[in-house]
Amino acid sequence: MKTLLGLLTLAGLTASAQPTAKDRLLERIEAIAVSEPPVLGIDTQIRTAAVLESKDPDTAERWLQAATSRVLTLADLHTRGEFLNAIVDQYRHLDAEAAEQVCSLLPKRATGAKEDPLARCFHSLFSARRSWEEEKALTRRALSAGAFQAPEIRSHLERAIRDHSEECAAEFAVIVEGFPSADASPQERRNLLEMANLIRKLEPELAAAARKVAQSKPKSALAGEDEQELEKKQVLGEEKPPTEGLATPELVTLARKQSAAVQVGMLLEIMDGDKELSPPQRIAIAYEALEVTPKIKAGDERLVSQSMLARRLYDFGDRAKAAVAAQMLAESFEKFYNCETAACVAFEGDSSPGEVINDFAEYLRENKIQPEDLGLRHKSLEARLLILDLQRSLGIEKKRFSFF
């Protein structure tokens, strides 16, 4: 009997040691993530943590720790800032102290730099759930770290004036002390002036002193007007020409005269907007747009265009041309995966290239299209499909796909 019980116990232990469906999915995702180029691999790790956060917070933290370690190897400050802020967004639900530690890994805004990911990061840490004493302590830590531009700094002063008038002088003095007077940007100087105006009736002398600090000559070579002029010169994206009143043939002719990105965008609008087009006409316009996409600079815009056109051709019923579009999309994916572009270690804008791949994965899954049906094979796409499988296995609902 003892032997039988021992065998049953051993059998139970063996069964319990078997990996679960979740474990197997995580093992496959992790194997892909570590082999992806940094920008895609980090994106995979953060997405996986986001799925795990509510169901398995300990494992989610492990994935965030791995992502953080990898982010710190990136040289591009914009890319590092975007990823660390994304990591903090997840950590805030898991461990507030760890979230703040990640924020502290961000450097102070460089002189003349427009972006301030450090301020954005500390801003996200403020919460209505914090007590007044906790908020005061966080305000001091944020200012000490260099996050003067965090909008919550001003909000903290407003709360002091409204609810803690006996402390507003002390709180404003802390803010003035945290002002980066040596290399403050014009916006930072404006912020300090505005806060001085908020407190001028309660503390006129302190407000006057703050105005003097804000108006002192900056050491930065970028004065206010120079910085504004620099902002005006930055390219915000191409705009399409006026099209009101033009018939479809005229719109197509006009589109062909534009840059590649604008041309593709206009042709997509034509095929979606003109309900009188026959299926062959839609296919012809879609394929014409597809042939232009290789001229678009390698990056998010090309991926988006090719993803949309692969979908259109598939929906229009031309599987052969859809397969061509998918192959072109696969080649664009490979440019990221094989580090043929700077996107494997850096990206511009607010979202990583992984976002575009994830959007396409969601489209495929929602429409029950297998990547193989389009001749599409790519590790980063596979990883995001596995993350969707993980999400489903954990019983997590996802909003319907609406990217295209």
Write structural notes for this entry:
The chain is built from 20 helices and no strands. It is globular. The protein has helices spanning 2-16, 21-33, 38-52, 57-71, 77-91, 96-103, 117-125, 132-145, 151-163, 168-177, 186-199, 204-214, 224-233, 248-255, 260-273, 279-292, 300-315, 319-337, 353-366, 379-393. It is 65% helix and 0% strand. The model is unreliable at 220-237 and 400-404 (pLDDT under 50). The protein is an all-alpha fold.
Provide a compact summary of the structure.
With 404 residues, this protein is mostly helical. It contains 20 helices and no strands.
Instruction: Name the helix and strand elements from N-terminus to C-terminus, one letter apiece.
Output: HHHHHHHHHHHHHHHHHHHH
Average pLDDT rating: 86
C-alpha termini separation: 65 Å
Q: Calculate Rg over CA atoms.
A: 27 Å
| Beta-strand residue fraction | under 5%
How is the main sheet built?
Answer: none
- Return residue spans where pLDDT drops below 50 for at least 5 consecutive residues: 220-237, 400-404
**Helical residue percent?**
55-70%
Number of helical runs?
20
- Counting helices, strands and paired strands, the structural category is mainly alpha
Taken from the alpha-carbon principal axes, the silhouette is: globular
How many beta-strand elements? 0
